[in-house]
Amino acid sequence: MEILETKKVVEDINTFIGSQLWLDFEVLQYDKQKLTIIGSIDISNMHDIEIVFEDIFFVSLPIEWKTDTSRPVLSILEGEKAKILNKKFQVEQGHSIFAFAPEDYPDDFGCYVCAKKIAFNLTSEK
Protein backbone atom coordinates (compact mmCIF):
# COMPACT_ATOMS: atom_id res chain seq x y z
CA MET A 1 0.00 0.00 0.00
CA GLU A 2 1.48 3.36 -1.02
CA ILE A 3 2.06 5.93 1.74
CA LEU A 4 -0.25 8.54 0.17
CA GLU A 5 -3.06 5.99 -0.04
CA THR A 6 -2.38 4.92 3.54
CA LYS A 7 -2.47 8.54 4.75
CA LYS A 8 -5.78 9.10 2.93
CA VAL A 9 -7.34 6.06 4.65
CA VAL A 10 -6.14 7.31 8.06
CA GLU A 11 -7.52 10.78 7.27
CA ASP A 12 -10.90 9.29 6.30
CA ILE A 13 -10.99 7.22 9.50
CA ASN A 14 -10.23 10.31 11.60
CA THR A 15 -12.91 12.29 9.75
CA PHE A 16 -15.53 9.69 10.64
CA ILE A 17 -14.33 9.37 14.23
CA GLY A 18 -14.30 13.15 14.62
CA SER A 19 -17.96 13.29 13.63
CA GLN A 20 -18.93 11.12 16.61
CA LEU A 21 -19.56 12.32 20.17
CA TRP A 22 -17.22 9.58 21.42
CA LEU A 23 -16.09 6.12 20.40
CA ASP A 24 -14.88 3.15 22.37
CA PHE A 25 -12.59 0.70 20.60
CA GLU A 26 -12.05 -3.02 21.01
CA VAL A 27 -9.91 -5.67 19.35
CA LEU A 28 -12.47 -7.90 17.68
CA GLN A 29 -10.26 -10.48 16.01
CA TYR A 30 -6.74 -11.41 14.98
CA ASP A 31 -6.47 -14.18 12.44
CA LYS A 32 -3.80 -15.03 9.88
CA GLN A 33 -2.10 -11.65 9.70
CA LYS A 34 -5.39 -9.71 9.83
CA LEU A 35 -6.36 -7.58 12.83
CA THR A 36 -9.87 -6.15 13.13
CA ILE A 37 -10.57 -3.34 15.58
CA ILE A 38 -14.11 -2.08 16.05
CA GLY A 39 -15.32 1.27 17.29
CA SER A 40 -18.71 2.09 18.72
CA ILE A 41 -20.52 4.59 20.87
CA ASP A 42 -21.76 1.53 22.78
CA ILE A 43 -19.61 -1.59 22.37
CA SER A 44 -22.45 -3.78 23.70
CA ASN A 45 -24.46 -2.87 20.57
CA MET A 46 -23.66 -2.90 16.87
CA HIS A 47 -20.33 -1.24 16.14
CA ASP A 48 -20.03 1.82 13.91
CA ILE A 49 -16.64 1.26 12.28
CA GLU A 50 -14.29 -1.63 11.59
CA ILE A 51 -10.63 -0.85 11.07
CA VAL A 52 -8.81 -3.72 9.40
CA PHE A 53 -5.03 -4.07 9.36
CA GLU A 54 -3.33 -6.69 7.16
CA ASP A 55 0.17 -8.14 6.96
CA ILE A 56 0.81 -7.46 10.64
CA PHE A 57 4.38 -7.14 11.92
CA PHE A 58 3.64 -6.31 15.57
CA VAL A 59 0.81 -5.10 17.81
CA SER A 60 1.08 -3.29 21.14
CA LEU A 61 -2.23 -2.04 22.50
CA PRO A 62 -4.89 -2.73 25.12
CA ILE A 63 -7.84 -4.93 24.16
CA GLU A 64 -10.32 -2.08 24.83
CA TRP A 65 -9.92 1.69 25.11
CA LYS A 66 -11.82 4.97 24.95
CA THR A 67 -11.01 7.93 22.70
CA ASP A 68 -11.40 11.68 22.68
CA THR A 69 -13.01 12.30 19.29
CA SER A 70 -12.26 16.03 19.38
CA ARG A 71 -8.70 15.26 18.26
CA PRO A 72 -7.19 12.81 15.75
CA VAL A 73 -7.41 9.28 17.08
CA LEU A 74 -5.21 7.48 14.55
CA SER A 75 -1.91 8.52 13.01
CA ILE A 76 1.04 7.09 11.13
CA LEU A 77 4.30 7.43 13.04
CA GLU A 78 7.04 9.30 11.22
CA GLY A 79 10.37 10.84 12.10
CA GLU A 80 12.40 10.04 15.19
CA LYS A 81 9.63 8.16 17.02
CA ALA A 82 9.18 5.85 14.01
CA LYS A 83 12.96 5.29 13.80
CA ILE A 84 13.13 4.32 17.47
CA LEU A 85 10.30 1.77 17.13
CA ASN A 86 11.66 0.49 13.81
CA LYS A 87 14.97 -0.31 15.52
CA LYS A 88 13.38 -1.67 18.70
CA PHE A 89 11.07 -4.10 16.87
CA GLN A 90 13.31 -4.60 13.79
CA VAL A 91 10.44 -3.60 11.52
CA GLU A 92 10.70 -4.87 7.97
CA GLN A 93 10.54 -2.40 5.11
CA GLY A 94 7.07 -1.76 3.70
CA HIS A 95 5.30 -1.68 7.05
CA SER A 96 3.76 1.43 8.60
CA ILE A 97 3.42 1.97 12.33
CA PHE A 98 -0.09 3.17 13.15
CA ALA A 99 -0.65 4.84 16.52
CA PHE A 100 -3.99 5.14 18.29
CA ALA A 101 -4.42 7.95 20.84
CA PRO A 102 -6.41 6.37 23.68
CA GLU A 103 -8.08 8.59 26.24
CA ASP A 104 -7.04 8.24 29.90
CA TYR A 105 -3.52 7.08 29.03
CA PRO A 106 -0.32 9.17 29.00
CA ASP A 107 0.60 10.80 25.67
CA ASP A 108 3.64 8.54 25.35
CA PHE A 109 1.58 5.36 25.88
CA GLY A 110 2.33 2.95 23.05
CA CYS A 111 -0.88 1.95 21.31
CA TYR A 112 0.55 0.64 18.03
CA VAL A 113 -0.22 -1.59 15.09
CA CYS A 114 2.57 -2.19 12.59
CA ALA A 115 1.11 -3.41 9.30
CA LYS A 116 1.41 -3.11 5.53
CA LYS A 117 -2.26 -2.38 4.83
CA ILE A 118 -5.16 -0.56 6.47
CA ALA A 119 -8.81 -0.35 5.44
CA PHE A 120 -12.08 0.47 7.15
CA ASN A 121 -15.79 -0.20 6.87
CA LEU A 122 -18.61 1.88 8.28
CA THR A 123 -21.10 -0.59 9.67
CA SER A 124 -23.86 1.63 11.00
CA GLU A 125 -26.26 3.78 9.05
CA LYS A 126 -26.23 7.32 10.38
TrEMBL record:
Domain of life assignment = Bacteria
Instruction: Quote the protein name from its UniProt record.
Output: Uncharacterized protein
Taxonomic lineage of this organism? Bacteria, Bacillati, Bacillota, Bacilli, Bacillales
